[in-house]
## 1
Amino acid sequence: AAPDADELTIVAHLPERRLPWLATEGTQAAQTLDELRRCAAGAARTVELKLISELDAGQLSALGRELRIDLLVVGQPTIRILGVAGEVRKQLGLPLLYSGSGTFADRPITNIVCVAFGERAFRAVNEFLREQGTPDLQVKFASGPTLPQTEMDLVVLARFPGPLLVARVWPAPVLVLSPAAAPAVALRRPLELSPSPPPLSPAKRSW
């Protein structure tokens, strides 16, 4: 869970109904929203749910600036949603947390694997570790697609891998660093872009 999070904003994509006279569509949508609220309860001190009918990176980026978010979070997104999330990450210069089908253990993150290709990527990872590392943090590095066979609570990627992020089964949640610089992940406010119940986050503020 993310007990230290101050605020969590969940952005739920709810397309406009093509057949508005079908009552079952409205019922299913209401059930989905109720499930999101139940899953998000207790994830942060303040939880807010926003509905959008269109996936527009520009509008979502404007919303992110208005809310002053620090982290973009996706659960199990479609390729389209992932593409929008990647563009929002680029426009806002934010890190992105991908939880996939897994969840965070209810304990501090102590084992991470950092994946970096090239000098610029290694600089970003090293800066991230300097800012966010703790004496108890165990770090292993990978310079290729094969991850070490070890216990891990988080995978850190220096670059956004695009559709490969959802095409691969990861052994732990994945944090993609900011496209501009290593992010400050001592976060203040969460905002989630996902059609599924929100993932658990170790951060203090996310989107």
Note: Residues 196-206 have pLDDT under 50 and may be disordered.
## 2
Amino acid sequence: RQICAERYETGGNSVVFANITDIALSDDGTMLAVSHGSSKSRHNLTLLELGSGRTLFTQSVGVTADSVEFEGGSLLLGSDSGNIRRYSLSGEVSDVVRLSDDVADVDVYGENIYAATSGGDVVVVSGQTGEILFGASLSARNALAAPCRVTAGEDGVFVGSSDGTLYAFDLSLAFKSEVRFAGDVADIFRSGEQLCVLVSGQGMFSY
């Protein structure tokens, strides 16, 4: 998500994508997953090997997908159909869970998957069984809340909303606090022990 480019180049090779909706870097920094597509009916997931620029697989996913995340030796893809699907590093796919609304973002912490939907729901899903373990509704707190990004870690779950609010929960999604900004929360991510919040028109905030 921190790479603002429609083009990937390495070792003299070049790969051009149309409409990148999300990217994810593997923990060891050797692979890049790209969710991209020119239309809702032509959306794809591509996995690249960074050292060589080799395409490991490209898979048509059939519906716009706004979030991709590595889960150990596999990939998770959240789509506008509400599905969260798991892809092996060779492109084999299996369903994890179907949520009630478009999946805005997914993150992985421990053995669980943390997901936010465009309708304002946040859920914790078992990565092993696909069971929804916990849930919370941002729209119950603020009718204008529209989650765009979620990140989870030892200190809890943080959800950024396009209404300019950062919500904090514990790992069981009990509400802790919220911070309001003077612009949309465009992205949130972790850098070491810091939580970084990118706010439109305001810049980067670190906690």
Note: Confidence is low (pLDDT under 50) at residues 1-9.
